[in-house]
């Protein structure tokens, strides 16, 4: 798991908003806008929990992005 210190640093990058859709994030679990620390690169591609490689995302965007690269996710946003 990602440390509380790292999670706080990542959340501060966008003043508590999802980097992808801009929704205000909550730290309450199991909410549509709950905070996820998203890896810009897929963990399967060697991403680490380095704060420079993490961005704050809502649960919906994080799940939609999945293992896609940032470029792949942006290219497919809005498509079913």
Please write out the topology.
Layout: H1 4-12, E1 35-39, E2 54-58, H2 59-65, H3 70-76
Antiparallel strand pairs: 1-2
What structural keywords apply?
80 residues, 3 helices, alpha+beta, two-stranded antiparallel ribbon, globular, 29% helix
Characterization of this structure:
- The chain is built from three helices and two strands; from the N terminus they run αββαα.
- Helix content is 29%, strand content 12%.
- With 80 residues, it is an alpha+beta fold.
- A two-stranded antiparallel ribbon has the order 1-2.
Instruction: Find the count of extended strands (DSSP E, 2+ residues).
Output: 2
Large-scale geometry: globular
Task: List low-pLDDT spans.
Answer: none
Strand content: 5-15%
Main sheet makeup? 2 strands, antiparallel
Structural class: alpha+beta
| CA-based gyration radius | 12 Å
Structure annotation, total helices: 3
Following the backbone from N to C, one meets helices and strands in this order, namely: HEEHH
- N-end to C-end Cα span: 31 Å
Sequence of strands across the biggest β-sheet: 1-2
Helix percent band: 25-40%
């Amino acid at each position: 798991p990602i440390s509380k210190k790292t999670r706080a640093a990542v959340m501060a990058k966008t003043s508590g908003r999802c980097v992808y859709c801009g929704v205000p994030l909550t730290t309450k679990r199991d909410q549509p806008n709950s905070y996820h620390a998203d890896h810009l690169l897929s963990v399967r591609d060697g991403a680490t929990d380095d704060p420079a490689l993490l961005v704050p995302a809502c649960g919906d965007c994080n799940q939609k992005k999945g293992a896609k690269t940032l470029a792949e996710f942006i290219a497919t946003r809005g498509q079913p």
